[in-house]
Amino acid sequence: MLKELINQFYSNQRKDREQHHFYISDAGKCSRAVFFKFKKAPREEMEPRVLRMFDHGNSIHRLIMKPLLSMKVIHVVASEVNIPPQELIAGRADAIISDGKELYVLDIKSMNSMIFRNLNQPKEEHINQIQLYLHYLDPQKGILLYVNKDNQELKEFEVLYDAKRAQSLLKTLSDLKIKIDSNIIPPRILEWPKGWQCQYCQFKEICSTTGEGNVSWDNFKKKIEAQSENK
Ligand code: SF4
């Protein structure tokens, strides 16, 4: 009984939200997948189990912040820091901390043992995210703190602000915004269909029936609507 009720609780939270701006986590991701998310295109449903894992990630963040908030050598200047409001992108860094000499943006990430074990450098997608936090917030340095969900081991990596990389990520998002507004589905990523983004992509089914390059969303939408009516 409880299993079904808990699953139902998470399923009810799985609504497609209206998206009007990018999130920091969209930076560096497949433009086509982000486009489909904006347009609320049909996607593979996320299992309640996966949503519970996201929730677990949030509680790990709180667990890590607890000692940081109580120690003297590190000062938590602010936690859950929103980037300044603007039209293109929104995001919230876990914290800004100070060691008494410098300020750092802190971003906490959790993962399973298998991925954690092989982690010798920060993941590219996480560097992208922290670069944008550094771009919009004061500190010039960031720390990516990784937590092994299975045994609570930690690894940390310092990241320096790279203005060129941040500008390039923002330019890609601005270009994508133009495509979203003009209903042009961007091309697939070069790594399709074997790349890791495709493996975990909720839109892989509809992506495989869309052409490879730029495609008209209006035409494609009519096609998928007709297909679902014929089912
Ligand atoms: S399947 Fe791959 S190329 Fe297609 S939308 Fe998903 S991530 Fe992008």
Structure description:
The strands form 3 sheets. Strands 2-4-5-6-7 form a 5-stranded mixed β-sheet, with helices on both faces. The longest helix is centred in the first third of the chain and has 23 residues, at 48-70. With 231 residues, it is an alpha/beta fold. The mean pLDDT is 92. It is built from 9 helices and 9 strands. A hairpin with a 5-residue loop joins strand 6 and strand 7 (154-160). It has helices at 2-12, 31-38, 48-70, 113-117, 124-136, 163-181, 196-199, 204-209, 217-230, and strands at residues 22-23, 75-82, 89-90, 92-98, 103-111, 141-148, 154-160, 184-185, 215-216. Helices cover 45% and strands 20% of the residues. The chain is globular and about 65 Å long. Bound molecules: iron/sulfur cluster (SF4). Iron/sulfur cluster is lined by residues 30, 32-33, 188-189, 192, 197-198, 201, 203-204, 207. Iron/sulfur cluster binds next to helix 2, helix 7 and helix 8.
Question: Quick gist of this model?
Answer:
This protein is an alpha/beta fold and 231 residues long. The chain contains 9 helices and 9 strands.
Let me know the number of strands: 9
Bound molecules: iron/sulfur cluster
The number of distinct helices, counting runs of at least 4 residues, comes to 9
Please indicate the percent range of residues in DSSP E strands (runs of 2 or more): 15-25%
Mean pLDDT: 92
Assign the structural class, choosing from mainly alpha, mainly beta, alpha/beta, alpha+beta, or little secondary structure: alpha/beta
The Cα radius of gyration reads 20 Å
**N- and C-termini, Cα separation:** 32 Å
Q: Assign a percent range to the helix content.
A: 40-55%
Q: Runs with pLDDT <50, length 5+?
A: none
Could you spell the SSE succession in H and E letters? HEHHEEEEHHEEHEHHEH
